[in-house]
């Protein structure tokens, strides 16, 4: 009896081993229906090479399928004598040399690796828009996502090709399992492209990435966890730096958050000292007044309810302020998660053209953000960016209606509760002027031009702030 059982186990084991070998052999064969250049290249090289295509299996899942990465990269490389920075504003030669993947240092705090996440985290749709991205950076972005994320959390990767010169990039990349590519019929800019990608997404959580990123170890789980716990949170990773010269992967500081000046220029700034002192756990989220814009996770229902993006913004810029103000002022929050790290190639110039010009486009977009969300404080924006005065920015009626519908807080609320560190220009000057006169004032509203004091107009605009300087109950109406 015992012998029969032993034989049965032996037979089953042999069958299982043979079956596994057959499965792997089958799986590593390119499908005959492939009409890609990778497919035709394989045909030229014969069956042997077809079978030697590397098969990357993560958790039992072949992440790149039969996509021929080598052919994809080698058919478009820098030609001898060409300036490696010209087309992409980073060193293309170095990027190409790295190929489709590489090992990067886990830049997280060591305590991050012991974090635990819910076993039932929901999957996400990754949205990557691109306009004339280099093949090597784009492929590394996609591959890093597929290789460094639990497969069950990646519902799909939606590429939106924003009318790049070569439609082949989009077509070829669609051969990678889970990757879909939508191609715009004309240049739309990253804002409308992201809205298109988000609308096509089938998962309930959206993850936006730039097209020249490399995600790091366990980057995704902390972000999905936070959004799962509270769908009104919009979360970003710490954005590590990929050198535009030698493509070294460099850890960014974990003490930074997003900020801006009144000209609506984004900057990284130190976390305020009180908050820093209060942080005894380096894995805790960092509240941020604004996000850099390119890399974040957001619940799809919340993205839609809050009005996606302002689709009258063109090409690049300003949408991160508009989204950040909207999220905070309309009931959500923004945070940076130190246990999530994503590398990004920061550049010094735009490698692509702006049909309306770079400056005018930035002004149009930021002006829309200021006009819709900054209430009376938009005056400081115009003071800091005088060239914006009188420039066309289109109708904002829809966005104002959205703001009313969502019953959002005022910009003053945002400044007081989210970004009290943002200095009000000339506030000190106005204060000292009033103090000298021994007066105590209250604001009569920003449209009120009837102040009887002969202080310069720009200072008058700041009067509604003056209550901050006077202890409550001690002011008198003028
Ligand atoms: C930062 C953001 C970027 C965006 C921008 C403000 C990060 C890491 N990056 O600028 O995502 O929020 O600030 O608008 O936070 N693209 C298109 N169509 C275009 C132009 C660009 O699809 O017409 C793509 C481009 O290929 C890239 C992405 O949009 O994938 C962002 O463009 P970028 O990398 O030039 O912007 P960046 O990183 O300087
Ligand atoms: Mn970028």
TrEMBL record:
GO terms for biological process: protein O-linked glycosylation. The chain crosses the membrane at residues 7-25. One of its GO terms (cellular component) is Golgi membrane. Gene3D superfamilies: Spore Coat Polysaccharide Biosynthesis Protein SpsA, Chain A. It is found in: Golgi apparatus membrane. Its EC number is 2.4.1.41. The keyword Transmembrane applies. Residues 125-301 form the Glycosyltransferase 2-like domain. Keywords: Disulfide bond, Glycosyltransferase, Golgi apparatus, Lectin, Manganese, Membrane, Metal-binding, Signal-anchor, Transferase, Transmembrane, Transmembrane helix. It catalyses: L-seryl-[protein] + UDP-N-acetyl-alpha-D-galactosamine = a 3-O-[N-acetyl-alpha-D-galactosaminyl]-L-seryl-[protein] + UDP + H(+); L-threonyl-[protein] + UDP-N-acetyl-alpha-D-galactosamine = a 3-O-[N-acetyl-alpha-D-galactosaminyl]-L-threonyl-[protein] + UDP + H(+). Pathway: Protein modification; protein glycosylation. One of its GO terms (molecular function) is carbohydrate binding. Its cofactor is Mn(2+). Belongs to the glycosyltransferase 2 family. GalNAc-T subfamily. This is polypeptide N-acetylgalactosaminyltransferase. It comes from Cyprinus carpio.
């Amino acid at each position: 009896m015992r012998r029969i059982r032993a034989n049965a186990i032996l037979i089953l084991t042999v069958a299982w081993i043979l079956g596994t070998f057959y499965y792997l052999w089958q799986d590593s064969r390119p499908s005959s229906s492939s009409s890609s250049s990778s497919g035709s290249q394989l045909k030229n090289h014969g069956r042997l090479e077809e079978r030697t295509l590397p098969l990357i299996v993560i958790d039992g899942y072949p992440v790149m399928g039969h996509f021929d990465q080598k052919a994809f990269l080698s058919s478009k490389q820098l030609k001898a004598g060409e300036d490696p920075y010209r087309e992409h504003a980073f060193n293309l030669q170095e990027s190409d040399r790295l190929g489709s993947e590489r090992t990067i240092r886990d830049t997280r705090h060591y305590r991050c690796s012991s974090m635990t996440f819910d076993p039932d985290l929901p999957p996400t749709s990754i949205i990557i828009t691109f306009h004339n991205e280099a093949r090597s950076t784009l492929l590394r972005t996609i591959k890093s996502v597929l290789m460094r994320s639990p497969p069950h959390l990646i519902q799909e990767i939606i590429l939106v090709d924003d009318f790049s010169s070569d439609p082949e990039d989009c077509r070829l990349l669609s051969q990678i399992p889970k990757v879909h590519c939508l191609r715009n019929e004309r240049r739309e800019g990253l804002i409308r492209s992201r809205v298109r990608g988000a609308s096509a997404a089938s998962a309930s959580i959206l993850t936006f990435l730039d097209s020249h990123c490399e995600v790091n170890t366990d980057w995704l789980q902390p972000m999905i966890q936070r959004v799962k716990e509270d769908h009104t949170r919009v979360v970003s990773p710490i954005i590590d730096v990929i050198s535009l010269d030698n493509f070294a992967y460099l850890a960014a500081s974990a003490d930074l958050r997003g900020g801006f000046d009144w000209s609506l220029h984004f900057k990284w700034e130190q976390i305020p000292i009180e908050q820093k002192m209060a942080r005894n756990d380096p894995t805790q989220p960092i509240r941020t007044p604004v996000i850099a814009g390119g890399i974040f996770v957001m619940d799809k229902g919340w993205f839609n309810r809050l009005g996606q993006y302002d689709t009258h913004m063109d090409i690049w810029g300003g949408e991160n302020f508009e989204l950040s103000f909207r999220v905070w002022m309309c009931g959500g929050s923004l945070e940076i998660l130190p246990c999530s790290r994503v590398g990004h190639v920061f550049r010094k110039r735009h490698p692509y053209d702006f049909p309306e010009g770079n400056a005018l486009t930035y002004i149009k977009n930021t002006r829309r953000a200021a006009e819709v969300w900054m209430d009376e404080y938009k005056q400081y924006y115009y003071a800091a960016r005088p060239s914006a005065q009188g420039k066309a920015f289109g109708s904002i009626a829809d966005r104002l209606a959205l703001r009313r519908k969502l019953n959002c807080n005022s910009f003053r609320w945002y400044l007081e509760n989210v970004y009290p560190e943002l200095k009000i220009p000339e506030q000190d000057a106005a204060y000292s002027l009033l103090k000298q006169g021994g007066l105590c004032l209250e604001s009569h509203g920003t449209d009120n031009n009837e102040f009887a004091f002969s202080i310069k107009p720009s200072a008058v605009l700041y009067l509604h702030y003056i209550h901050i300087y006077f202890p409550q109950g001690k002011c008198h109406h003028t």
